[in-house]
Amino acid sequence: MLSPNALRALDSLGIYERIREKGYNFESVCLKNEQGITTERYFFGHEKKYGYKALRIYRQVLIGELRAMMWEKGIEIEFERKFERVVEERSEGVTFEFADGVIEFATLLVGADGIHSKVRRYIHPSVAPVYSGQLAMTTAIPRSILRFPPDVDYELPASISAKAGAFVLAPQDVDGSEILAGTQRVFPEHDRAGWDQMAAAQGDLKALFQRDMKDWPDIVQSALENVSEGKISIWPYYTVPRLDQWASAGEKVIILGDAAHAIPPTAGQGVNQAFEDTYTLALLLAKVFKSPKVELKAALSFWQDFRLGRVDKVLGVTKQMNNKRLPKAEQEKIAKELVWQDETQTTGEGEQLQWLYGPSLDDEVEKWVTTQEHRGQVRGE
């Protein structure tokens, strides 16, 4: 799911126009009670306020368009290469090795290799992902099989609260005819092999998915009744401990995205924050290479501080939304400020997340660069 903060960056690169009609556009998710009544809303986008609705788009469609644009610009992509380790870092750049033994050299090495990042091990050798204790289970079903309650304007996407917790029904595909159906449960941790085995045991997963089905409203039961083996996915929520350094001491190895800050998907910001990382880093590196008054060390320091500030706030909202999905009995044990509350009545529609969707990343970077160049002029550089 892409929200305005990422879409604005993608739009500036000419990508948004290519993908806008290839996914499902929407503005908010309805938080509903068991009777199907919308009690609150969480905005993932807002065309009037932020210029963009949110866009649910299949990952392979987005990647396909990004790949096509790179080919059009003559940018080579090498496939079937697996990073192994950093061999040496020096002032000119970094030498690194692939799993097939091939050694390469680059001015900068940027690790966007996910939550189990091997590039991160070079900067933070002892850091490992931490399991949150929550496991998401999802599947895809036809919208046509859902039993919508009579006499209720049942807007989707929706997060439906009940005794068992929260269940999400979210349209996907261009016309919304397919529905992502899912929930999350407290679940013990497995190792990677254990998670793989669990994902493969589709019969057991289906039974787990359908457990306590009677505790859900009828519309959710209609979704669960149509869960098919072979179409169930699991997503154990892992995070990365807060890292104050996203670059090596020599400044030639950098991590971003899930390698630097894995964010659970509850508030829909994982991929969006990765795009923010990438876009702002690219803007800053362009300035470093063009202006002698903008130094790499200072640029990386600004980038890390700026990105950490936003990621910290996103993680706070994500935690609130995770808690919002707990069963009511569990929510009542948690401090009120740690559970998401819709403030539309006091802040205005969509305004609660202005800090997330509103700022221009270009303006933030340009403001800092202008300050650096002015300081250089004052020093007579």
Helices and strands in order, then pairings?
Layout: H1 4-12, H2 16-19, E1 24-26, E2 28-32, E3 38-43, H3 47-50, E4 54-56, H4 59-72, E5 83-90, E6 93-98, E7 103-106, E8 109-111, H5 118-123, E9 130-142, E10 158-162, E11 165-172, E12 178-186, H6 192-200, H7 202-209, H8 218-224, E13 233-239, E14 253-255, H9 258-261, H10 270-290, H11 296-324, H12 328-331, H13 344-347, H14 354-357, H15 361-378
Parallel strand pairs: 2-10, 8-14
Antiparallel strand pairs: 1-4, 2-3, 5-6, 6-7, 9-12, 9-13, 10-11, 11-12
Could you characterize what this model shows?
The radius of gyration is 22 Å and the shape is globular. The chain has 381 residues and is α+β, with helices and mostly antiparallel strands. The chain has 15 helices and 14 strands. A hairpin with a 2-residue loop joins strand 10 and strand 11 (165-172). Helix 1 (4-12) packs parallel to helix 10 (270-290) and helix 10 (270-290) packs antiparallel against helix 11 (296-324). The protein has a 7-stranded mixed sheet with strand order 3-2-10-11-12-9-13. A 3-stranded antiparallel sheet has the order 5-6-7.
Shape: globular
Largest sheet at a glance? 7 strands, mixed
Radius of gyration: 22 Å
The first-to-last residue Cα distance is: 45 Å
Strands, total number: 14
Report the portion of residues in β strands: 15-25%
The helix/strand series, from N terminus to C terminus, equals HHEEEHEHEEEEHEEEEHHHEEHHHHHHH
Question: What percent of the residues sit in helical stretches (DSSP H or I)?
Answer: 25-40%
Q: Mean of residue pLDDT?
A: 94
- With strands numbered from the N-terminus, the spatial order across the biggest sheet is 3-2-10-11-12-9-13
Task: List the uncertain runs.
Answer: none
Report the total helices: 15
